[in-house]
């Protein structure tokens, strides 16, 4: 069954930049009203401006500053959505917000580790808990949770620890897959889908440095790559990190949003985003026992470069 977004209401976390911004723009262009949250009011204001450039008459775009890792803020946002849109229902929930950081559980900063995990996992849980009552009131509802390729492969290479992000993204994948049965039994008009993007051209790397306490993980990783991070302050390092991550991505944020929305329309529950995501999924399934050996990573890098 194909889903029509026109006339619907979508809620998007992390709408200030990246995939969240592009999801908002494409949904609004199809006549879907959007409520978004982010920790940056300025970034959301720019997303809203871009959305309204192509918004059909009557389409609403609303912004709310909230930290998805704090349940009370998410519950308060849900109340604001009810009042702002004068509604008792929404139709689409995109739990998209995320940050990087907290690389090493053994030697890293605990606050950074927990900040990453709480945003990436509990941000999803809080989003579902806050907006499930509104989804329940819709004729049909759709929950779309962003995991990652690191939700099925917990590594970015044999020289870099990546525990908090990978653990959270595995948890998002498991939570979403378990929701499929839970919803079928208790709310069969609501579906759940898990999104597993590969390398997407977003600002997550630099944004994470502003949100997460400390930047040691990023500095260490870039230093290993030969960059002189000692001469840069945090703002300069964030700009370099953002540019490098965004501009080297094989899939843009806009392309990723299109893939996600097309999959939601088609009723898919398992959404791999990017050729790199599909290839890595096949490689891990073909060799699960060897997936964390350095030789596997070398093959993966060679495949991406081919």
TrEMBL record:
Q: Which CDD domains match?
A: SDR_c
Q: Which InterPro entries match?
A: KR_dom, NAD(P)-bd_dom_sf, SDR_fam
Which GO molecular function terms does the record list? oxidoreductase activity, acting on the CH-OH group of donors, NAD or NADP as acceptor
Q: Is Zinc set as a keyword in this record?
A: no
Domain of life, per the record? Bacteria
* Keyword terms of this UniProt record: Oxidoreductase
Q: Does the keyword Zinc apply?
A: no
Which ranges carry the Ketoreductase domain? 8-199
Pfam families named among the record's database cross-references: adh_short
User: Hey, which family's this protein in?
Assistant: Belongs to the short-chain dehydrogenases/reductases (SDR) family.
Q: What is this protein called?
A: SDR family NAD(P)-dependent oxidoreductase
Can you name the source organism?
Answer: Glacieibacterium arshaanense
């Amino acid at each position: 069954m194909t889903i029509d977004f026109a006339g619907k209401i979508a809620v998007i976390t992390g709408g200030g930049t990246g995939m969240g911004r592009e999801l908002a723009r494409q949904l609004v262009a199809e006549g879907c009203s959007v409520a978004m949250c982010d920790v940056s009011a300025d970034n959301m204001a720019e997303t809203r401006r871009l959305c309204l450039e192509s918004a059909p008459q009557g389409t609403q775009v609303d912004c709310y500053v909230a930290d998805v890792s704090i349940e009370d803020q998410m519950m308060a946002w849900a109340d604001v959505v009810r009042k702002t849109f004068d509604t008792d229902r929404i139709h689409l929930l995109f739990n998209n917000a995320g940050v990087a950081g907290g690389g090493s559980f053994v030697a890293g900063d605990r606050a950074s580790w927990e900040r990453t995990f709480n945003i990436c996992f509990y941000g999803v849980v809080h989003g579902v808990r806050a907006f499930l009552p509104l989804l329940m009131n819709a004729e049909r509802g759709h929950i779309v949770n962003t995991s990652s390729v690191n939700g099925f492969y917990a590594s970015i290479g044999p020289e870099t620890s990546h525990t908090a992000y990978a653990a959270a993204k595995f948890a998002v994948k498991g939570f979403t897959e378990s929701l499929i049965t839970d919803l079928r039994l208790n709310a069969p008009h609501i579906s759940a889908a898990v999104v597993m993007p590969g390398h997407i051209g977003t600002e997550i790397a630099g944004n994470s440095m502003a949100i997460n306490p400390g930047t040691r993980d990023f500095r260490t990783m870039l230093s290993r790559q030969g960059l002189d991070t000692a001469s840069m302050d945090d703002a300069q390092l964030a700009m370099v990190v953002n540019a490098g991550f965004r501009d080297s991505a094989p899939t843009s944020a806009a392309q990723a949003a299109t893939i996600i929305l097309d999959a939601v329309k088609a009723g898919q529950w398992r959404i791999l985003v990017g050729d790199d995501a599909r290839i890595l999924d096949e490689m891990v399934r073909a060799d699960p026992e060897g997936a964390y050996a350095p030789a596997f990573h070398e093959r993966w890098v060679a495949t991406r470069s081919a």
